């Protein structure tokens, strides 16, 4: 069935009536402010390339304070009426959006693959998780309710109400261009706030498509806004006196910067940062399964996932047993353009990022790690200019090596040995980041002990990626998270509302 909002035969990747794949005329993108698509004041632009072909597909304006201020003014203007809209009516555009997203599902996935490079299946999963957040936010009239207690003293009652705070903003990374803004926006607006999204300048297209659908879903003018930009736009958001709070996802140095600068200007902040995720494989684990799952976890999305397995810690005899299995699994990966149906791993996001990941591989070899599988020479004959790297495995790593310390964010699996469970726990605990981790074991005792003792706050037991489920909170620990309340789950309503306590006595 053809979606009613879309002309029959309309090509996918069409945003504002323009096919993003058109080589003839890469488009300069516009902001969405006050219910309209408007030109940015920017004088500088970031180029958006299809990473599989290196084709230039769009130019993102690198807007600054003027663009941000325009969006804040539109959001402030919309706020009083939106706040007074009954919560059951505030979620009506989300109902419609849910329907539009289901109808547009495959096209949305296609735009994600086009601008990011991941496989269509991976893009589809990310669209599904975005929709999960819309589903969850539709229940906000229930979730936003306060509490009450009669007779806190004789004849005196007390109740709390949750109230929105005003204008919020989200600043998001390149690796999940459609999904990550949806961790925040549906919850914030359902709670009665108005919102600004600043997507990654490297992958702005799927968010623009999302805003086209949100426009169609009927959000009043100014309730949702999109401003393109890079550091200048981010700093303008952090400093703007009329923005009540900021949700950030990206690398740890930028998360730290966002947290401290936004907090200094009195805002609520949740800043989700980078990752170096360890997977502990115990000798009693199902080794073939652990190898299969941790290979998928490491090389899925070409390793550009904050939940990616980065270091496999083989405990005792598990180390030798899993080593060859990992190589075998990784050799089965088919690298290429994510739009092709048999491809299981796409390219890296940019040429520069590919160079950076290559640098880590060279560094690992120079530090003495053993190259078990070398993806450096991979070329896709169909797309010789694409930013591809094959899966790479570096073994015999030591905790102090750069490849075991820094986030590589590419298809590189680091293999390390721990003599026993305690040493594995100590290696994980010593790392400054703490986003996610997994343990493979058949022992409930080790699984519990691991959960109890390590800090990363997203933990898998015989699971490769402790995925972001809309209904639960999501965010790491230590240097991977700055703030108190995490993304989505119950924390979303906590973050986007204030609690007012009312004590009442009637004479
Ligand atoms: P990034 O930190 O480079 O960029 C994130 C956002 O910050 C972008 O919108 C960008 O425009 C802006 N930005 C970049 N540099 C800035 C600066 N100096 N000052 C102010 N703003 C700046 O991150 P990325 O490369 O887009 O994304 C990858 C990173 O995001 C990885 O570290 C990954 O682990 C992390 N990530 C974390 C999670 C999580 O849930 N913890 C989820 C996805 C990605």
CATH class of the largest domain equals Alpha Beta
Widest sheet, order of strands: 17-18-19-16-15-21-22
Determine the strand fraction and express it as a percent band.
Answer: 15-25%
Instruction: Give the helix tally.
Output: 18
Largest sheet: 7 strands, mixed
Secondary-structure map:
Blueprint: E1 14-15, E2 18-19, E3 27-28, E4 31-33, E5 36-38, E6 45-50, E7 55-61, H1 65-84, H2 87-90, H3 92-103, H4 105-116, H5 120-138, H6 140-143, E8 148-153, E9 156-163, E10 167-171, H7 179-182, H8 185-190, E11 194-198, H9 205-217, E12 224-226, H10 231-239, E13 243-249, H11 252-264, E14 268-272, E15 277-281, H12 287-299, E16 309-315, H13 318-331, H14 351-367, E17 370-373, E18 392-397, H15 402-405, E19 412-418, H16 421-430, E20 433-434, E21 436-440, H17 444-453, E22 458-461, E23 477-478, E24 481-483, H18 490-496, E25 498-505
Parallel strand pairs: 3-7, 10-11, 10-13, 11-12, 13-14, 15-16, 15-21, 16-19, 18-19, 21-22
Antiparallel strand pairs: 1-2, 4-5, 6-7, 8-9, 9-25, 14-24, 17-18, 20-23
Helix pairs in contact: 1-10, 3-5, 3-9, 4-5, 4-9, 10-11, 12-13
This protein binds nicotinamide-adenine-dinucleotide.
Architecture overview:
- With 507 residues, the protein is an alpha/beta fold.
- It has 2 domains: 30-273 and 480-501, Aldehyde Dehydrogenase, Chain A, domain 1 (3-Layer(aba) Sandwich), CATH 3.40.605.10; 278-461, 3-Layer(aba) Sandwich (Aldehyde Dehydrogenase, Chain A, domain 2).
- It is built from 18 helices and 25 strands.
- The strands form 7 sheets. Strands 17-18-19-16-15-21-22 form a 7-stranded mixed β-sheet, with helices on both faces. It has a 6-stranded mixed β-sheet with strand order 12-11-10-13-14-24, with helices on both faces. A 3-stranded mixed β-sheet has the order 3-7-6, covered by helices on one side.
- Helix 3 (92-103) packs across helix 9.
- The model has no long low-confidence stretch (mean pLDDT 95).
- Nicotinamide-adenine-dinucleotide is lined by residues 171-176, 198, 200-201, 230-231, 234, 249-251, 254, 257, 272-275, 306, 407, 409, 435, 476, 480.
- Nicotinamide-adenine-dinucleotide binds at residues 171-176, 198, 200-201, 230-231, 234, 249-251, 254, 257, 272-275, 306, 407, 409, 435, 476, 480.
